[in-house]
Structures are given as structure tokens and as C-alpha cells.
Amino acid sequence: MKVLKFGGTSVGSVDGILNVKRIVESQQDRAIVVVSALGGITDKLIAVTNIAVAGDKTYQTEFASIITRHKEILKAVTPAVKHAEIAAELQVLFDDLQTVLTDVFTERNINLQKKDLIVSFGERVSSILIANVIDGAAYAYAPDFIKTITSFDKHTLDLETTNALIHSHFPHLPKVTVCPGFISTDKVTGVITNLGRGGSDYTAAILAAALDAEVLEIWTDVDGFMTADPKVISKAYVIDHLSYVEAMELCNYGAKVIYPPTIFPVYHKNIPVIIKNTFNPDAQGTFISRAKDVSNQPIKGISSIDDAALVTMQGLGMVGVIGVSKRLFGALANVGISAFFISQASSENTISIGVSNAEADLAVEVISEEFAFELKIGEINAVKAEKNLATIAVVGDNMKRIPGISGKLFGALGRSGVNVIAIAQGASETNISFVIDTKSLRKALNVIHEAFFLSEYQELNVFLVGTGTVGGGLLDQIKQQQPKLKSQNNLKIKVVGVADEFNVLFRREGIDLNAYKEAVTKEGVPSTPEVILKGILEMNIFNAVFVDCTASYQVAALYKELLLHNVSVVAANKIAASGNYANYAELKDIARKKGIKFLFETNVGAGLPIINTMNNLVNSGDKILKLEAVLSGTLNFIFNTISAEIPLSKAIMMAKEARYAEPDPRIDLSGTDVVRKLVILSREAGYQLEQTDVKKNLFIPQKYFDGTLEDFWNNIHEMDAEFETIRQRLEAEGKKYRFVATMENGDFSVGLQEVDMRHPFYELEGSNNIIMIKTERYYDYPMIIKGYGAGASVTAAGVFADIMSIANIR
Ligand code: ADP
Ligand code: ASP
Ligand code: MG
Q1: What is the pLDDT of residues 337-396, one digit of tens each?
Q2: Distances (CA, A) of 268 to 117, 746, 789
Q3: What's the CA dihedral at 640, 642, 643, 644 to 10 degrees?
């Protein structure tokens, strides 16, 4: 025979119940079908009770909605001719429930017994409903044979009595028997009790063990036991096989898919458990048995409890004293508190235990009482509870044979800035559990899942500020590359935040790049640097990259705080790398210490691999002696474009229209842009300098830069004639103008140079850049990097390359 358990998720909807009917009716073996209350009903019954006990009449409306929901489902899942009869059967129960609720409402009083009675109706009603849905089903009333004993307001199973009663209740087994889960009766008083929230799984396991079932099937709403809660980790996937111990550890630490005590009875009888999906019965599901795992996977799953408190007792008085633990746990046991986490420092001077938030104060109280004397004489410091913590368990039988798991685990958490408060590892080495702040739970789970599971893909979460030509181009490129990156590189780039000039939009699940502009406008909130920073930090997301495609000082000012929170930074914005040296050095230093990245390759030469190449040279022991470069795509374009027909002012306008120039072209013409670039390159070459250390030989008089941008456009044509004269002379001499940046012997300068045909800078088309790097190794023949030095698409591609290089750190 088999025991099949259908949870509230399975019997909570018309579709679900019809699937249950199909699944049960197609069974070959004899079966006991254990059912939960309709999904959400137990919670609703508790809520109604709370409303009634507060003396609030609206409990009636809530109660009425419970009745309506059952009646509607009943109509949809049973033939019309039976409606009245079944409805009458259910109504008897609802009338009983009404009487209890009325009592509670008038007396404004509730006790455990009444609470238990009220919640029992969920399963009593659902089981009768389902028994009527399944053709030819018999009915068994679980409270007749599932017996509990009660201490500290908690019910525990009386195994012996229960087993005996089950045997006498089922001398012969009908083809199908429907039985309510969860509910039971007190062995002594006979009043209704239950097996605890989620207890239907346990009812099913108790029956399976008592009747020596071949298998226990737990039917729910997911394809099986998964590597993590799929509601938190979208990439979690189904585990084919788990050992009983693994399943037990995962459930104990919050994997809701099975109620923890469930494993115990079936483990003893060696009955396999299969987790199956009512809504996808063809999926193989998860098989839990004693069989050895053939996979070499060190970790099978992660689970977590987010309602934890850590109670810590500390003091030198505990060192080497025998019996401290005994007294501690004795005190807790006396009030029925069980600790799910214990960690003791080897010096024995602290013991920390994990309990639920609700039990934390009581735990502190009873421990303080037990150790009152030691506290008084100062051998033990005060006992303290730290609340609102989360406990994570990483589980796998294979861990014990594979070294380095903890290192990898805590390394990954550290890199993501998750602070671990306490750690415990069982001697069985099947479980490493640790405590963190609840705020970091989602991130921690994601980080661990990423680090250990050969998930189909790795995820990188991108925040982009600035959707102009570069930022917009980048989003287009990411959109185009997304499918290929996912299929070929197992990398999912998820854009989780976008800010344009006006608004910022955050979406943990990712923003649709086909329609990001509209989404940011319609669904975003007004954007300020503070709002952006707050939004990112609050999202507290793992593998996060902040991409700055603005030219804004305020945005650049956010980098430090972001890096400190383990968010990598990719900047197309040159301000941070070329600004104050101390700030630049600090940003690099934070990134290095945190194991994340601060990248700005596109600050110089757009997409050309200049900074990266220089870093590689320096890191491999070379020394950069001299740099000579044409670094302004805009200026080069202008000098290449000026002709008899095109005067200077027109060439400037054309550079702007081609979007080579900075938003304000004066930044290019004044040499500021080239100075910034030279500063960045020199710093990366190992020199400590500020922009003021660079000598400038300007070719446009300062007065054109002093007014407004409008003044500039109005007046710049005054320079046309002078430039035409120079142009004619240069043409006659076979020379060209190049705006060259130079670093040599600690001297930094930018200025116009006339170059003839023999100079490598002579042939430099359009807006191209060129850089000559003279090093100890590349001495006689300096290295030359040359190519497009401006333009939105190459710059966007360079930013993309920086983002990709972050994806590759593990
Ligand atoms: P039922 O009503 O069938 O008892 P539950 O809601 O009690 O269903 O349990 C199923 C839910 O457990 C899933 O929907 C899922 O969100 C949650 N869950 C938590 N951890 C896991 C896990 N590791 N694998 C599968 N499901 C999990
Ligand atoms: N209905 C009960 C609960 O919601 C028991 C169960 O679903 O297993 O906790
Ligand atoms: Mg459940």
C-alpha cells in the first residue's frame, strides 16, 4: 500500500482538486490519502479567532468568506446532484464552528484548547470534501487514532498508543481511504489537538510507518525538493535524491516542503519518500531514501529560518566547569524551549544558542535564573538575546569527504559583504549552519547558491545610471547579447536598476530592456544621487555592478559608499579616476580589499584596451617610462576635418553632431578632457599626480571658455581665420596638427604639436586615438595601440567589456 499526502496547495483550488482526483483514481495500489485544509484556511481560521477575541464583529464577514470559498469549490468539483447533500454535511461542521466562534467573541477569551478546536475545522471540512470527490473513497477520522500528549502547550505524538490504534482501525484496507492530516486528540482527555503547523505531512508519515507502506508520497506545488526555496532563489532546481539525514537537516532549517518530524517515522521503517507536484505529475520528483548518493556534489541544498534569535552567555566562570551545558539546556527544557543552533567557543567562555524570536526573552529569563549565583558573583556576564537574525544551513552528506567547503562558503559570503555572526558545524559534517542578520538573508542565499550549485547560469546584477548615447547603447548591446551569454557563457546579466536624468527604477527581477525607457518614466521615482544610493543598498543584491554612464560629479561621489557595500563600479565617467588623487587611491584600495572591482577602461581611448594593457605590463613587472598619445577623438576629428571649405567653428559643430564631443565641447577644446585622460593613465602607470600637475599649451584663448556655452557658440567663429592661415602653412609643409599628451620623467603636458609624415601620429584618421607606451621591455620599439577613440557604440562596448570582466571573478 501507499500513503499519498496532498497539501493545502494541492487542495486549495478547483484545478488542484481535480488533479488530486485524477492522481488518486489512477492508483493501482491500495492507498490512504491524507489531506490538509484548503491552502490558506488554517491561517484564516487563526485570523478570524483573533478578530473575534478582540470583540470585533467583522469576524463574521471573514468567517462567511471561509464558508463561501468551500461552497464555491464544492460546486466546481462535484456533480450537481450531490451538491445539496455534501453542502449539508459541511454545514453541520460550520455550525459547530460558529458556536465556538460566538463563544470566543462573547467571552473575549481564548485558550489553547479552543484554538486547537477552531483550526481543526480546516482539515475536517477539506477531508469530507475530498472524500466526496474521489470515486468510491472510504473515510477515516484521524483524531480517532492519532494521539498526543501535551506539555508546555505543545503536543507531541504518543507513538505507541497511536500505532496500536492505527492497527486496530485498519484491519483491512479499502482501495482508497481519505483521512484528514494535522488533527489528533489528546490521549488523556480526548480533546482535539494537532501535530503543529504543516503537520499533515507527519500524519501521512505516521500512517505509512504504522502500516508498512511501500512508499510515502508527498504531493505539493513544486516539482520536488529543491536546492533552495524557489520563492527566494529563482534558479533553485529539483534535487533527484536526498538521504533521510539530508532531508531532515534541510527541513529542520526551514525547507517548508516537508514538516520536520515527518522523516523520522519513515526513516526507521526504511520507507522511501517521494516529493511530487500535483500540478505536474509527470515530473520525476525527489526520492528520499537510505541509498547512497552517487553524485559527487558536496552540497545538496540550502535552507534558512528567518525568525531566529541568538541567546549568548559569556564569562570566564564557564571555562572548564563541568555541567554548565547541562544546566543551560535543562533550564530551557524545563520551559519547553528547544534550541536549533548551538555554538560554543573552544575556550568555553561563550555559548550561543539559536531559538525563535518569540522564545528569546523567556530563554534569557530562565538561563539568568539558573545561573543567578554565577551572575551575581560576576563569573558570568549578563545573558543577552540578539533578535531578528536568520540562520542558514548548508547541507550535504558528501561534505565530509571534500575539504575546503567552509572556506568557499565563508569566502563567498565575505566577498559579498555578508557578516557572519555565529557558526556551528555538526560532527556528522552533514550540515554547516550559521547566523546572519535577517536583512542579508536573501543576498546570502543567492551568494551560496551561486557559489556551490552548478546552476545553469551565473547572474550579474547591473545598476545603470545615465541612459544617453553610451548608457543607452550599452543597454541595447546587453539586450542583444543576453540570449547568447546565457546559452554560451552561462551568464545572465540582469539590469536591476536604471536611472535617466529624471527618474530611477529598481526591479529585483530585472527590467525588460525592450521597454526600459517607458518603464523608467512611468514606474520610476524621481531620481537623485541619494535615492539611487539608498535604492541600491536597500536592494542588498549579490554580484552587483554599478555602471556610471554620466558625466556627473554627484554620481561619481557615490562610488565609495557603493564599493564599501561590495558593489563593483564600472565608470565611463572620468571624474573619479581623474579627480583628487587620495579619493582615486582610496576607491582602488577599497575595491582590492573587498575583492571586487573598480573599472574605468573607457575613460581613455573609449573601447581600446589601454588601461588594461598597462595594468598587465605593470603587474607582470614592467615599468612604464614614457607615454605619448593622441587621446581626444574630438580634437583629432576637428584637425582632420578642417579644410578650405570647413572652418574651425564648423568642424567643432560637426564633432558635436557626430557625438564624439563631450556634452559640453569646451571640455574637449580646453584640453580638460585630455588632461583628465593623461592623469588617469599616469596614475595607472604608477605616478601620483593631480590635474594641476599637467602643463597645458592651449590653442584657443581662455576668453572663449569663460562665458556660457551659448557665448562660446556665438563667438568661436572669430578663430576661423587664424586657423585657416595655420592650416594653409601646415599643408604647404606637409604637416598636421595633433593634440598630444605626454608623460616623461615625471613631466606631464598636453598641447598642439606639428607632426610630419614620418611621425606615427601623422596617419590618424577621423576621431581615432593612438597611444605609444615606452617601457623597460618595450624600449626601442614602444608598444602602440591605435583605433577608434570616441563614439557611443565603441565606448558602450568598452563598458560592456568591463562588466564582463567582473562576471569572471569567482
Ligand atoms: P503544502 O501545502 O503542499 O504542504 P507547503 O507550502 O507547506 O505546501 O510547502 C511547499 C512549499 O515549500 C513550496 O511552494 C516552496 O515555496 C517551499 N519550499 C521551501 N523550501 C523548499 C525547497 N528546498 N524545495 C522545495 N520547496 C521549498
Ligand atoms: N493545515 C495545517 C497548516 O496549514 C497543516 C498542513 O497544512 O499540513 O499548518
Ligand atoms: Mg506543508
Answers
A1: 988 888 877 666 888 999 999 999 999 999 999 999 989 988 888 899 999 999 999 999
A2: 31, 78, 71
A3: -170
C-alpha cell at 551: 558625466
The CA 257 to ligand 3 mean position distance, Å, reads 6
Task: Round to whole Å and give the CA distance between 769 and 761.
Answer: 9
In the sheet where 458-465 sits, what is the strand order?
A: 525-526, 503-506, 491-499, 458-465, 544-548, 568-571, 598-599
Distance CA 567, CA 577 (A): 17
Q: Are 546 and 567 in contact (CB under 8 A)?
A: yes
How far is the centre of ligand 2, averaged over its atoms, from the C-alpha of 200 (Å)? 6
Structure-block grid coordinates of residue 275: 516529493
The pLDDT score that the predictor gives to residue 323 is: 82
- The three-point CA angle 257-155-267 to 5° equals 45
Q: How confident is the model over 587-616, as pLDDT tens digits?
A: 999 999 888 999 999 999 999 999 999 999
- The residue with cell 552533514 is 430
Q: What's the rounded Cα separation, in Å, for the pair 259 and 201?
A: 6
Q: Whole-angstrom Cα distance, residue 488 to residue 456?
A: 11
Helix (H) or strand (E) holding 613: helix 610-619
**Class of residue 40 by CB neighbours under 10 A (exposed 0-12, middle 13-18, buried 19+):** middle
List residues near ligand 1 (CB under 6 A).
7-10, 36, 39, 198, 220-222, 225-226, 228-231, 255-257, 301, 303
* Residue 566, phi-psi category: left (phi > 0), alpha (psi -120 to 50), beta (remainder): left
Give dist(CA 134, CA 32) in Å, integer.
12
Q: Which residues contact 32 (CB under 8 A, 6 or more apart)?
A: 1, 2, 3, 4, 140, 173, 176, 177, 179, 204, 207, 211, 213
Q: Do 99 and 84 form a contact (C-beta atoms < 8 A)?
A: no
Cα separation, 36 vs 347, whole angstroms: 48
Annotated catalytic residues are 677
| Residue of 63, 23, 16 whose CA lies nearest to 38 | 16
Question: What backbone torsions phi and psi does residue 526 show, to the nearest 5 degrees?
Answer: -55, 135
According to DSSP, the β-strands at 544-548 and 568-571 are parallel
Name the residue of 182, 184, 193 whose CB sits within 8 Å of the most ligand 2 atoms, as the mutation to test its pocket: 182
**What length does the chain have?**
810
Nearest to 583 by CA among 544, 619, 556: 556
Q: Measured in angstroms, how far is the CA atom of residue 42 from the centroid of ligand 2?
A: 6
Strand 138-139 with 241-243, pairing: unpaired
What pairs with residue 151 in β-bridges?
154
Model confidence pLDDT, tens digit, residues 631-680: 998 899 999 999 999 999 999 999 988 877 777 889 889 899 999 999 99
